[in-house]
Amino acid sequence: MKKILKFLLIFALFLPLVIIPMDTQAKTVRDLVNELNQLEQEYRDAKNKVKLTEQEINSAYNQIGSISNEIDRAHKDIVNTEQEIKELDELIVSKDAEIKEIMNFLQLSNGESAYLEYAFGAKDFTDFIYRVAISEQLANYNNNLIEEFNSLIIQNNTKIKELESKTIALNKKQESLEGQIVKLGDVLDEYQEVGLTVEDEIKAQKQLVSHYRDNLKCELDEPIATCGRRLPPGTAFYRPVTMGTVTSEYSASRIHPVTGLPRPHYGIDIGAHLSANVPIYAAAPGRVENIIHRTGCGGTMIFLNHIINGRNYTTVYMHLYRVNVSMGDIVTHNTQIGVMGGTNNRNYPSGHVRNLTPWDGCSTGLHLHFEIATGHFGNLGSSQRANTVNPRNLVNFPSAWSWFNGRNIRY
Q1: Are 143 and 288 within one domain?
Q2: What's the first-to-final CA gap in the chain, in angstroms?
Q3: 272, CA 20 to 30 Å: which among 17, 49, 155, 384?
Q4: Residues 182 and 249 in one domain
Q5: Domain that holds residue 332
Q6: Calpha distance 22→46 (Å, rounded)
Q7: Residue 104: its pLDDT value, please?
């Protein structure tokens, strides 16, 4: 009997550990500081990449400038060569007319008869000798001149063709460099966007570290899940809005509605009627771990930490129009933490006071982006994103584009 009681006592002691799986991740403030250092290094790397890309772009522009000068010189050479050919043509016509006027024998098939005709037209013997000599000189001069001019024309035409070919090659090289600049510009935009994103993450991470060190008085190696005010336990997740519809699913390669490119979608999007001032609620009891106002994708967002059935989770709420809580606040699943955003101001109800900018570049309409990750996070780092799970695995949602009412009615 004593052995049975002893076994039951041991079983009772270990039962919570068996039934309630505890989170094995024990992140500390030191881990957050290390993550901050890593983000700062990523930011420096992004800045260096921006600098190097700008140098490549400047080099390409310099090459284009040099090529443009070569093209201009080639065009000028072509114009000059064409002018030389024109002048040669005019000179040939002039000389040819002059020679024909003196030597009409060029029109005859046999030049010697023309020589004789011209020579025998002399008035005396001296004039005859002169005419014979001048006829021979003019004939030779005319032939040599035409031969020389034809040779120059061939050379000039060849030069024009070479210059035209060179111009075509230079234009192609210029087009290639311009295409390279466009590609480098896209790379530069990407690096700059990365820099802005990391800059926002650094700001959020510093805020998070300060929150644990200064507000919650956590030690460097103390687990952040247990320091300060302890997280209230929960048993389930609720839908974060009372009415809405899932407009976009959790996916590893969703087509982005703005860029049109495949991108991971780490949560689900929940839409609502445009006319509604849609309240956002905490999906479970927990603590406000961070509030981030990003200049880029995601806009204003809230991070909540939870312990659900002994396991640590983080929920994220993005594209918020208004925030109703502060960092460190303890919330229940009935706490309204904010108001849905994600669209421009014109689509908000009249009289609605704006205290936060709802618009960001990744949003195309009024909605909430809702994420769940296993573990304890307060920023959108790679570690948090690697631990995201499909919210449908933990929260009951109807199929996409099917409207739901209430936060815990099962579908």
Answers
A1: no
A2: 49
A3: 384
A4: no
A5: 231-411
A6: 38
A7: 58
